[in-house]
Amino acid sequence: MTIKSKQFATRSLIALAVASAFPLHVAMAQDKPAEEAKPQAGQLETVIVTAQRRSENIKDVPMAITTLKGEKLDVLTAGGQDIRFLSGRSPSLNVESDYGRSFPRFYIRGQGNTDFDLNASQPVGLVVDDIVQESPMLKGFPVFDVDQVEVLRGPQGTLFGRNSPAGVIKFDSAKPQIGKTDGYATVGIGNYRSKNFEGAVNLPISDTVAARVSAQSQNRGDRVHNNRPGNGTKDFEGYHDDALRLQVLVKPTSNFSALFNVHARDMDGSATLFRANILKKGTNELVDGFKYGRYDSDGVNEQRLSTEGASMRLRLDLSGVTLHSITGYESADFYSRADVDGGYGAVYAPPMGPSYTNQAAFIPFVVETADVLPNHRQFTQEFRAESVNSGPLQWIAGLFYFNEDIQIDSISFDSLAPGNPQNPFYATQTQHTKSWAAFGSMNYTVTDKFKLRAGLRYTNDKKDFAAKRVELTTAGPFGISNESKNVSWDMSGTYALTPDSNLFARVATGYRAPSMQGRLNGLADRPSFAEAEKALSYEAGIKQDLFNRRARLSASVFQYRVKDKQLTAGSGQINMNQLINADRVTGRGVELDFQANLSDALRMTLGGSYNDTEIKDSKLFVQTCGNEPNTKGVNGCTPTGVAGPFAYTQKLNGNPLPRAPKWQGNFTLRYSVPVADGEFFAYTDWAYRSTYNMFLYEAKEYKAKSLVEGGLRFGYKWDKYEVAAFARNITDKVQSVGAIDFDNLTGMVNEPRSLGVQLKATF
User: Minimal CA–CA distance to 712: which of 757, 675, 762?
Assistant: First the structure.
């Protein structure tokens, strides 16, 4: 299947201990709220967020939020990184992918979804310019010309969009401005023949109309060599990834505005490389002689993704109330084909030698598949009214509508046949989803220091699903229709100890609609189904400006419980998934965000989190890796958990959630000094995460090692120009971060070091 190429203009405790180190009384008392005080030299800028659908000081919002913007985003994306650069840059946030630059999977406070099916739902929501991005194929849209990223932790849904029981990541693009001409352009080159461009221009068309055009092009050459060409195989990990956004703002009167947004992406590259036999038996270490730049494969590895979308946001200011209408349309076209068995050779290929350079390793069965999204469309509509008054009571009320149609094809290939022809075997899924919701919230100022908030949401979800398997004969279609209803709510409060110190507490419920999928294997297979999950979350914390607003601290503690948690179990033998429900999953932890201007030359940020998750279901068990003894006596993994009721199974009771590290931390330090007529600067950033289980079950080989990755960017600014050099993963630490649980220790590794230089001009 082909995709039309599109051309664009350009191709609990540690946190609380830290909080106690900054006593509340050091905050300077003022007659006016801190955000209204006249800024002084060296003070941190006030952070304004829209998490509650109103522009507010982040200190006044009663939930745990982290923001990223400006230079920090420039640093983290310097080497052409995709959206996975966010991983670890906010407390309790992890991002990974089995598909490379597409299909990112987000985890907040341990909750996420390891499912690789294109119909997988996620408990973490993604909202871009007020439009919910439901499909996994929409969630990897490149990050460029972004004003701010907000990470909202804990259940969301009583204010906008879809229900998100774990949290929401919210992107807001830079908007057009009437009467102003400005812009920027950044070009960069780096190792592996990488070439990157990003730019934007704001165009005032008239006194009432303005446009903003933003574009990004990220390109890299192949950096992994395949010594076994043929059957359509080639070298790997190069890509061309282009994106464009056009926004037009029309403001004919002072009380009405219309913002139109058209955007598109065209990506052509490689799928993730699944590397067979790279883990030492009984450990999570890479085998001796591992070479990142070599991957010998007899299968095809390619990926293409095209997305298009448009939105219209209308705002009308009336006496005492503001009305909003937000209309969005998104579509995606996706093709990804990979040599999932991780190398070359049939079942009887010789076993692995002492060095990874012997790639003719044990391949228990041939698996080369393609996942295709030939048909996808999403339509959303939101109407919202919000009060505009100076009284103690403020409110928001709205309606939300969601409509999505998808088709997914899963195709098998034969790597060992001459020419690698397509087998006449494939599975197809179709799903039509309709959802609507009514929501509202109220804010009430009880006293000058104490404010209460409460929200309520009613949701109705309806899904019609069908799956069939096509071989020499056809099985199916097998249909599932489900309608689910839910009422969710939240309550929160903020108490101002001083003008610079707020305590907050929040209790909230979350909900994820039932899931279904049918990546059928064989004529006897049937679709799987998972019931709706419901979450109850508690959190409390402090937000405080310190040292005359030269520093800022946010610390929180949280605890949640999820009933009927939706999980994904692998087959242990073949490239398949099965949806299951766990009776309960619990989580608890602490989170910290701290930033400070240490001096006129030094700025620092520090973040961290501790997450303790546990699956609680005494009857639940899954198959483990391989599901049978390895007939060659090599490679099979080493399970370490409690054995299940059948051979090669493991109980899940007491296990943590997969891909959920207990500890995460991040740190940045910026140094600058005036030089001549400009400024020399250096910016370093580091992220740490502890170990995690790659799957629901536990095995020595599939427990990811802890990982520290750092970056450095330094350069010189003058007038309207900037030149900089950068390095990502500067220690060049490469290790296994994911796996396919076949019987030959197939793993996936993180990206190696990247280097480059950039030139930026503003006007």
Answer: 757
